[in-house]
Design brief:
Layout: E1 4-5, E2 8-9, E3 15-22, H1 24-29, H2 36-62, E4 67-73, E5 76-81, H3 86-100, E6 106-113, H4 119-134, H5 160-166, H6 169-175, E7 183-188, E8 193-194, E9 198-201, E10 204-208, E11 213-214, H7 229-232, H8 234-244, H9 261-272, E12 277-284, H10 287-292, H11 297-319, E13 322-326, E14 332-336, E15 341-347, E16 350-356, H12 357-379, E17 392-399, H13 405-421, E18 433-436, E19 439-442, H14 443-462, H15 468-488, H16 498-503, H17 510-529, H18 538-549
Parallel strand pairs: 17-18
Antiparallel strand pairs: 1-2, 3-5, 3-6, 4-5, 7-10, 7-11, 8-9, 9-10, 12-16, 12-17, 13-14, 15-16, 18-19
């Protein structure tokens, strides 16, 4: 343990504290759909701030010069200390229990002595202790613990309207996060609350926009009505103005305002005729094991810093890029991801975003391509214990813009779980998969489906092909899925692949998709004759994707 991390010797530090925020998903997504665009970001930032406030709480007891933040992201932090931490941790728990006793969200603390232990040993033990600590929530205030907290962040039995006044996540988003410059500081605070200036909790207020500290991994990800959008979508602005006449729930677009989910769906509709939003949830596979296998502190620090950079600073830069789509005359046009995507959170090793469905689909493809490049570069850093391949799993869910927030969050979580649990023909969990339209694909298949969808859409829109091609592919896929189920049960004959060519015989542009049909046929035959896992979902996914692209 004599290595140095970024200019300080690990031998100076003898203790480690882990903070772990639990209840994140329920807390962030317990909002009404009509308040989602403002409240979601404020709530997700609250989780990020809770880690910072927890660290500050410990620093006040231990003194900042005795501590070093080893990692902070994704609702977790690891704080190194030169001096014993047990007393400070116990005091911090009392403060945490008091502030979180009627809340859906909680910050648990675990601590240990790290001298003479390897990083692998420390990592395993601190995470085990953290899991045990979660089971002892509110142990310092057990008699006042409320086992059934309400849906809001309340410190006592205040009426709902008073709680709303104290915890204004919408004001936090509108007044601070929308134009947050990454600077923040801390002031003393006696009351807990959230307002347009910052967040008060654990006896301190995290003040945004001022101070000497930097939130380096902050991803703004808030699409705003800025030039040239009001002019480009003047028809939508006028439409919302008409709808708002006599209906105060309709939000009229104004310069600088956050773009509502319904307007993001309208952007997609203007490009392709499909008025939907998509939800993307993704995270790194087996991240806990990845860190557990690292050999020493410097390597762990470099790996964690790299992950934070990718899901933080790099994500911010990628959102500023543009994606392409076809105009009505077939000309190539572009739109910015940042104008079409609302990032609920991105940090640590995962991300969750909502936006115009076509922009989110394209961003998922783009993000994964860049993740592959990123991990390839990471491999060159000679980090001992790093696995040969680091993978990413994801879920794409398409819904109406007024679909309940808690509903699409649950669906995205469920679909991501399905992608991670998917097994190949050997019964192995592969991970490195994406769930889209309810089908599980690997990333190569997802890329193929994207390419085929775009080519099919171009045939329909600009080469005179009938949209019937989409229904034919979907129909054949359904037939062969049923056939395979019958064969697996010992019922029915094998698939007659020639029917696929028969179905497609009247295509005007048969040569343009002939290789795709052959690929489809081979996949179907392999599934039947070799007992392989069905690998043709990429074709119905491509068909559905193309359908969405050609409704205009």
């Amino acid at each position: 343990m004599k290595e140095c991390i970024e200019g300080f010797s690990i031998t100076d530090y003898s203790y480690l504290v882990k903070g772990d925020v639990s209840g994140i998903q329920d807390f962030i997504f317990s909002v009404k759909s009509d308040k989602a665009s403002k409240s979601l970001k404020g709530r997700s930032f609250f989780v990020q701030a809770l880690s910072k406030l927890g660290i500050h709480l410990l620093e006040r007891e231990l003194l900042k010069e005795n501590t070093k933040v080893f990692y902070d992201g994704g609702g977790n932090f690891y704080l190194l200390s030169k001096v014993p931490v047990s007393e400070a941790v116990e005091k911090a728990r009392e403060t945490i229990d008091q502030h979180c006793k009627a809340s859906e969200i909680y910050l648990s603390l675990a601590e240990m002595h790290i001298n003479s232990l390897t990083f692998t040993e420390v990592w395993s033990k601190i995470n085990r202790l953290s899991n045990e600590s979660k089971l002892r929530k509110f142990s310092s205030d057990v008699f006042n613990f409320n086992a059934y907290p309400g849906p809001k962040m309340e410190l006592d039995s205040k009426p709902d309207e008073e709680v709303e006044k104290d915890f204004r996540y919408d004001r936090l988003t509108e007044d601070s996060l929308k134009n947050f410059n990454r600077k923040f500081g801390f002031d003393p605070a006696t009351e807990a609350g959230v307002d347009g200036v910052g967040i008060s909790f654990f006896g301190s207020k995290m003040v945004l926009g001022a101070g000497s500290r930097d939130l380096e991994d902050w991803v703004n990800g808030l699409p705003k009505w800025s030039k040239p959008l009001p002019e480009e979508y003047d028809w939508l602005v006028k439409k919302r103005q008409e709808e708002a006449d006599g209906n105060p729930k309709i939000k009229v677009p104004k310069s600088g305002n956050i773009i509502e989910f319904s307007d993001l769906a309208a952007f997609a509709h203007a490009r392709n005729g499909t008025e939907k939003i998509a939800v993307l949830k993704m995270d790194v596979d087996n991240l806990g094991k990845l860190f557990k296998d690292l050999k020493d502190w410097p390597d762990a620090k470099r790996a964690s810093a790299a992950m934070s950079w990718f899901f933080g600073a790099f994500m911010s830069d990628l959102l500023l890029e543009s994606f392409q789509y076809k105009g009505e005359a077939g000309e190539t046009q572009t739109a910015k991801f940042s104008d079409n995507i609302y990032v609920v959170f991105s940090g640590g090793d995962d991300t969750f975003m909502v936006g115009a469905w076509d922009a989110v689909f394209e961003f998922a493809y783009c993000l994964h391509q860049n993740f592959n490049d990123f991990t390839a570069e990471l491999q060159k850093q000679q980090i001992k214990g790093l696995p040969e391949k680091i993978t990413l799993s994801a879920a794409l869910v398409v819904v109406d813009p007024k679909f309940p927030v808690v509903g699409f969050a649950d669906r995205a979580e469920k679909e991501l779980g399905e992608a991670k649990r998917w097994e190949n023909e050997k019964g192995e969990r592969c991970k490195n998969m994406i769930s889209v339209f309810g089908q599980i694909l690997d990333w190569n298949e997802f890329g193929y489906a994207r390419d085929l969808a775009i080519r099919t859409a171009n045939l329909i829109q600009f080469e005179g092909e009938s949209r019937a091609i989409i229904e034919r592919v979907k129909h054949v896929a359904r037939d062969y899925e049923r056939l395979q189920e019958r064969v697996a049960d010992g019922r029915g004959p094998g698939p007659k692949v020639h029917r696929l060519f028969y179905t497609m015989r009247n295509l005007k542009n048969l040569k343009a998709v002939e290789e795709d049909i052959k690929s489809f046929s081979t996949a179907l035959l392999d599934a039947f004759t070799k007992g392989k896992k069905v690998s043709y979902p990429k074709f119905p996914v491509a068909a559905r994707w193309a359908e969405f692209l050609t409704r205009k």
